[in-house]
Give the backbone structure.
Amino acid sequence: MEAKPQPQNKAEVLMAGMGVLGDRLPIGWDIQPLSHRPPDARFDALWKVTAPDGTSVVLVVEAKRVVERRDTATLLQQLAAQAEELPGSRGVVVSRYLSPPVRKRLSDAGLSYIDATGNINLNVPRPGLYVADRGADHDPWRGPGRPRGTLKGAPAAKVVRALLDHDRSWAIRELVTVADVSTGSTYRVIEFLESEELATRNSSGAVVVSDWAALLRRWSEDYGFVRNSRVTRWIAPRGLSNLMQRASENPTQYVVTGTLAAATWAPHAPARSAMIYTADARHTAQLWGLRPADAGANVMLAEPETDVVFTRALTDASGLTIAAPSQVAVDLMTGPGRSPSEAEELIEWMTRHESSWRR
């Protein structure tokens, strides 16, 4: 399929948005732009949508090439004020592309939206119109180079882990040192977190995270145990209890994560499999007596793309090395089976005992 041309300015964004809506209107419905826009108007366009019975609604349109989650409150205020000036009208945000997190934030705020890739959610009570469709989940016009609007990669993981694991305000130079990443990478991550309303600057310019759970959840959208590691699958022939004993007795670089680790803080049903980070899976498997498995595996060994998974690890009473709660939580959030629900139980524990793990 031939790619759609990228809208270059507001006029093209508006044209693309009206085309997306027009293509998805039910048979007999019509959309037309209204030309009587006052010179001092605070909106970008008015569209008149007419039902087959002749009833109609005016859509007050705010067009933006780029919309970030932090823009939602401003857009809601603007469109609400503009709709009051035109009784019976409805506000709608139109953009070149709207990412999944932005679309969710707009929907949660009760705002209708359209983007040029075909993402649309329009709800008009009178004359009774609801249009929803899905377009792209990735920006089709983003060129090569450093990805924007993401927490993917090792530098982001290191910065996020530092912000999660320490309850403090951060000067950038201090965050650079603790996270062990470049100044440029740190600034890029913080700028993104600010755009997502996950980090703020206080009066002295220090970085503050007020909702660590929201940051953790956002990180899980870009990070995962499997997708950020080289994972191999093995069988522990004598069961997981024997494996944990051997792990505590045989020195090698590893940390246990997932269900087995979470049970340290939030006990639940016995684990049926083990998720373990290690620097050298083959050496670790040989040391622990594991057997390669194509099916029926009960152990996943993951060689991570970043050594931050080993940072701030804990040792339990049996001598087992456990990943930090923040790392275990994000691994469970993207893990198999019941892992996501176990992540929620762990996050509840972390919320109740924040001072014991976030220092």
In short: The two ends are 52 Å apart (CA to CA).
